[in-house]
């Protein structure tokens, strides 16, 4: 299972320079886990830079993955991860969600560099 971080979804939808690299991880949406905080980040970014309609279209595609909501065990693990690796809250939640669901994180966010179970796209 894979977890595509917000940076990956945004890069893919914006057709950025790394979109092709991310697209190979997005071929089978049934094998992707998405933390609900990623939906927040992607929706916010797309709405800010485009329109609400575009943001909702993007969210409709992300919702075809397995969405995982923040629960107590993920929240506590995220707090521990944040303390251990000095990760910002959203990144700690993403990483904790990946660990709880036995996923590999696919990201271009440098906060994740050097962590286990991370594919760094550059």
Descriptive overview:
The protein has one domain (2-120): 5'-nuclease (Rossmann fold), CATH 3.40.50. The chain has six helices and five strands, in the order E-H-H-E-H-H-E-H-H-E-E. The chain has helices at residues 6-13, 19-23, 36-49, 52-62, 72-85, 89-100; strands at residues 2-4, 33-35, 66-68, 104-107, 118-120. The strands form two sheets. A three-stranded parallel β-sheet has the order 1-4-5. The protein has a two-stranded parallel ribbon with strand order 2-3. Helix 3 packs antiparallel against helix 4 (52-62).
Strand content: 5-15%
SS elements, strand count: 5
Q: Which regions contain 5 or more consecutive residues with pLDDT less than 50?
A: none
Tally of individual helices: 6
Give me the side-by-side strand order of the main sheet: 1-4-5
Query: What is the radius of gyration computed over CA atoms, rounded to a whole number of angstroms?
Result: 13 Å
Succession of helices and strands:
EHHEHHEHHEE
Shape: globular
Largest β sheet strand count, sense and barrel closure: 3 strands, parallel
Helix percent reads 40-55%
CATH architecture: 3-Layer(aba) Sandwich
CATH homologous group name = 5'-nuclease
CATH fold description = Rossmann fold
What is the arithmetic mean of pLDDT? 97
Chain oligomer state: single chain
Helix/strand-derived category reads alpha/beta
Quickly name the level 1 CATH class. Alpha Beta
- Terminal-residue CA separation: 21 Å
How many domains, as an integer?
1
Give a short synopsis of this structure:
With 122 residues, the chain is of the alpha/beta class. It has a single domain (2-120), classed as Rossmann fold.
């Amino acid at each position: 299972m894979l977890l595509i971080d917000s940076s990956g979804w945004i890069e893919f939808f914006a057709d950025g320079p790394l979109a092709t690299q991310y697209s190979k991880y997005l071929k089978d949406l049934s094998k992707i886990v998405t933390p609900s905080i990623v939906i927040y980040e992607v929706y916010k970014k797309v709405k800010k830079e485009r329109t609400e309609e575009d943001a909702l279209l993007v969210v409709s595609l992300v919702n075809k993955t397995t969405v995982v909501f923040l629960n107590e065990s993920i929240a506590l693990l995220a707090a521990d991860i944040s303390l251990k690796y000095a990760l910002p809250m959203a990144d700690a939640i993403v990483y904790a969600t990946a660990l709880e669901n036995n996923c590999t994180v696919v990201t271009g966010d440098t906060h994740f560099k050097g962590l286990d179970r991370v594919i760094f796209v550059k």
